[in-house]
Prior knowledge:
This protein is an all-alpha fold. It folds into two domains: about 5-150, Hypothetical protein af1432 (Orthogonal Bundle), CATH 1.10.3210; about 245-405, no CATH class. The protein has helices at about 5-20, 30-45, 50-65, 75-90, 95-105, 115-125, 135-150, 155-170, 175-200, 210-275, 285-305, 320, 340-350, 355-405. The longest helix is centred in the middle third of the chain and has 67 residues, at about 210-275. The relative contact order is 0.06. Residues about 225-230 have low confidence and may be disordered.
Amino acid sequence: xxxxxxLEQVAEYVRNYMQQHDNPAFLYHNLPHTESxxxxxxxxxxxxxxxxxxxxxxxxxxxxxxxxYFEDIFNHEAAGAKHAGDFLQKAGVEEETIxxxxxxxxxxxxxxxxxxxxxxxxxxxxxFNLGTEDFTERGKQLRKEYNIxxxxxxxxxxxxxxxxxxxENHRYFTTYCSALLEETKAKNLEKLRNKTAEQQSExxxxxxxxxxxxxxxxxxxxxxxxxxERPERTIETMFRVxxxxxxxxxxxxxxxxxxxxxxxxxxxxxxxxxxxxKDYDYTNLSLPLGxxxxxxxxxxxxxxLATRPNIPNGTFTRDDLTNRSANLLxxxxxxxxxxxxxxxxxxxxxxxKKYLHTTLLRDIYHQGVVLGRKYRLLKIAYNVFMFGLxxxxxxFFIVSKYYSDNP
Length: 407
């Protein structure tokens, strides 16, 4: 299926539809917003090795995600998904792909509920502006649109509270957006909180009253707390991004090893079939065939070693908790423990910030150690396969040339 051509059709259809149904009240949910979401979807998806089909799913969902707003502002995700299904069905897109696109659109409904990578990319693209410099201006446009469409004006203060609640409870799904946007999003949240504090201060009736002084002190405490929380958010993002990247690298290593195992297993099966045939007449090729068989077996062995799990004994002791040497974030350290013992250990970690950070660091460190071992063995497997294949092919040519010159 020609996905790039289909994407051009999708873009043309959405643009034409929005222009034909243009509504001056849509100050936020309009064509420029949709195009910005599509651009963000392209930017995020380029960071991940998506297939051509998955890329088509992501970008198509980004184009259609707000199209239902022109029909039903209260349930526009479902309307947009139906729009996408009707158009793509007529375009001859397979039903499985259409279902995936509709699911991506539906997951943008607040609160977002993305589970797989294409859905996560679409959700993050939809709220990409939360972590950008134009967040404030876009928020103003959304508030004006809301007041017009709902005919129930919302004050700046009330809207600011809603926005603060959104930012405090929002987390980007993809590691790319977390690393790129979380810091700016935190600054945007800080600005809103400061405005709220200023508004509360200005509304005080007696500037030097005890109540006013207490209010100022609370605001100062909140300001100090925000400053203290800022590195916490950065640390949280660092741990999340690092752990996710390690997991992705581990998955990639397993995939590479599985490819080597599969390819070499097929070759070994063919070679064994040749060797056991009773009417095998090419005895002059026994040496290069044997060399190739050894290369394939060695490659399989190193690939299996790279993916073979190493599980600890599954228990920890009170001394391990006291010495802060127990990593309860890895199942291999507790799978044989009773739940009560495990929960006691976890509560001890959660109540001790330093222990918690140490445990997270230890978990990331051990992930790195395992990754290092995997990639070392994987590199050996690839080198054995590459050089062994070259030597075996050269041996085939040499033996064939020798026997052709000496019949």
